[in-house]
Amino acid sequence: MKRSFTRRDVAYLVVATVLAVAGYGLFRAMYFAGEPLPFAQEMVLVFLGAVATIYLTAVLLNRQTELELRKEGRVIVLQQKADTYMACIEKVAEIVETANHDPRLIDELRVLNHKLAIVGSGAAVRQFCAVLDRLLEGLKDGDMTNVEGESVMQALADLTAAMRTDILQEIGIDGEGDMLDAIRRNSRRMEALDDLGEKPGG
Predict the structure, then answer these.
(1) Contact 136, 174 (CB under 8 A)
(2) How many Cβ atoms are within 10 Å of 144's Cβ, its own excluded?
(3) Does an H or E element contain 121, and which?
(4) 42 to each of 4, 46, 53, 72, how far by Cα in Å?
(5) What confidence score (pLDDT) does residue 134 get?
(6) Neighbours of 160 (CB within 10 A)
(7) pLDDT in tens, 167-188
(8) Is the dihedral of CA 86, 90, 96, 99 positive or negative?
(9) Residue 202: its pLDDT value, please?
(10) CB 183 within 8 A of CB 157
(11) Maximum CA pair distance of the chain?
(12) pLDDT digit string (tens) for 19-48?
């Protein structure tokens, strides 16, 4: 994993180098100054060990805190992303189920669109645009037919695949292959199951 050094990191490195060189010179002078008294040399060594321990502990704690903050930030962003993705899917499905132009649902979808623009991946935003195009086509006359609803749900299946890929990549899971075809097939099967319930005597 590549890590770019910030100006703060470079400044810390320079300061640490200067302090290390100055500290070495100071302790070396103190050590040889105490040569006639072995006890004084031992005290210098103990003090040197204590300083080195404190310095290393501070560096490790600072690094650990930085990593924990980054991890916590990623968890928060991932949770926001997952919540937004699920809300988009549920809201589009609710609009299709309503099958007519409901201003309240459209307003809620508009808010979700802005949230998606903030946390969503590029692929998810582009697929959501396709879903909106299908919704516009289906609701332009006020009511949505079953065929138009199925078209929206197929676009939603593509959106779901893009969202799934993004979430898995965020948590470091790859290599599951292309799931788009399977998600599309499942969506078509669900539409077929829904159509069975609309048949007379079903």
Answers:
(1) no
(2) 24
(3) none
(4) 42, 6, 17, 45
(5) 92
(6) 22
(7) 988 887 764 556 667 777 776 7
(8) negative
(9) 42
(10) yes
(11) 108
(12) 777 776 776 676 666 566 666 666 766 777
